[in-house]
Amino acid sequence: MSSTQVNINIVIYLINYLFTILIVDCATTYSQSFTNGVTPTSQCTAWITFAAGLTCTSYSSLRIYGSNDPTGITITDSYVVTAIAVALRANTTYSATSNGYTLIVGVCGSGYEITATGSLCTCTSGYTLRPCFGGSSWGGIMGTTCSAGTQTLSLDFS
After folding, report:
1. What is the mean pLDDT of residues 66-70?
2. Which candidate in 66, 85, 116, 122 could, as Cys together with 141 as Cys, close a disulfide (CB 3.0–4.6 Å)?
């Protein structure tokens, strides 16, 4: 093997290594337990911290899931996923359709929500997180999103 080939192999290895580090460092999860009829407080604080931490320049997937549906839904359009992360971090509104879901980020109550129901700040059944709503309609997974039963709500970005 020539020295040029060795150098090329080293460069390829380093690029792959750095790419792997960047992907791993960008993976982040919000996961909190919510209780029926209880206004979330620590969950809202964790949501604000989570959103502020969405600082990577690109994300390849997001997954909305919870104790009612541990598999949840996954969105793999990197443009849409990155735009959702930016909207959550910057507290701006965003809407897109991907993988058969209409995803919306926007204001609901006292904070921002992400929903895959196609309707912002409604009680539509589906996949919604709104931990800073300011009341007991904090969202829900695979079911009612207002006054939902006790459950865990989770959102992954990677």
Report:
1. 99
2. 66
- Residue 4 burial (CB count, 10 A): 8
For the stretch 117-151, what's the b/e string if a residue is b when 16 or more beta carbons lie within 10 angstroms of its beta carbon?
beebbeebebbbbbbbbeeebbbbbbeebbebeeb
The per-residue DSSP string of 9-45 comes to HHHHHHHHHHHHHHHHHH-EEEEEEE-TT---SHHHH
Domain count, the chain: 1
Q: Phi-psi bin for 29: left (phi > 0), alpha (psi -120 to 50), beta? A: beta
Q: Is 15 part of any domain? A: no
Q: Determine the Cα–Cα distance for residues 89 and 151; give it in Å rounded to an integer.
A: 24
Cut 0.70: pTM above it: yes
> What pLDDT score was predicted for residue 6?
43
Range of the domain at 76: 27-157
Q: What is residue 3's predicted lDDT score, i.e. its pLDDT?
A: 60
20 is a domain residue: no
